[in-house]
Predict the 3D structure of the following.
Amino acid sequence: MKWLIALLLALFIFGGAWFGYNLVFHEDIQVRKEQRGEITPAPTPDISLPEFQAAAKLRQEGKLIEARDALSAFILKYPSGLHTEEAKDLLGEINVDILLSRIPSPEKEEYIVKPGDVLAKISNKLKTTPELIMRMNNLSGTMLHIGERLLISHPDFNLVIERKSKLVVLLNHGAFFKQYHVLEEKLSPKQPPKVNTKVTEIMAWRDGHRVGFGAKEFIGSTRWIRLGAPAYTLYSVSDSAHPRVEQPPPPQGLGLAATDVEELSGLVNNHTPVTVTD
């Protein structure tokens, strides 16, 4: 009987010690194992996903204004969230959809074509671009008719090129409008930390030759956007919509999807400010 009592006493002593060890030291040991990569920590709950999905659903339902507002609020609420970059990409697409549609917006006004009006004259007068006027009004050519009603927008765009993030960010009146992803980088290794410049030329190429706006070869041409800073040209890289970009890239510059450069070349002009940062 004494041996049974001794056994129960030993179990009580060692069991209490084991319990105390786990209570005091186990948590610290687990943390150290996680730090060494021996244990995978439990995944962090993705609390932002339902809100992102709800905003994306609004876009699918054609509620562009509501989707734009929801995504803008989402990005402000989760600036470093798991879906923030996806939200920015989607917001950019929606912003362009709204800009190039008949959806009412404070920036849009109606303009009636007068005698002597041409696209270049109207765009200079109203601080926009000829191509933006064409795209907003679904024009297939540059010919205008007296009395024709055009929808005109007055964006105030500027570009921010983030080298490390490989992004070209388009701002409108200082606020995020759309971001474009850099697919190729051909820059010298020594770059100043910050460059302030502007767009100096929109270039269009067809069959190895430059073509001008309004020419029949302009539609479907390969676009480049040349900046004032040396070695900075945004050039086109093949994508699903342009599987064969025949124009060779410049010696230096940043390559974007051809569809993105085509879109961007119709939004900026020769006065658009550009900031290049790390």
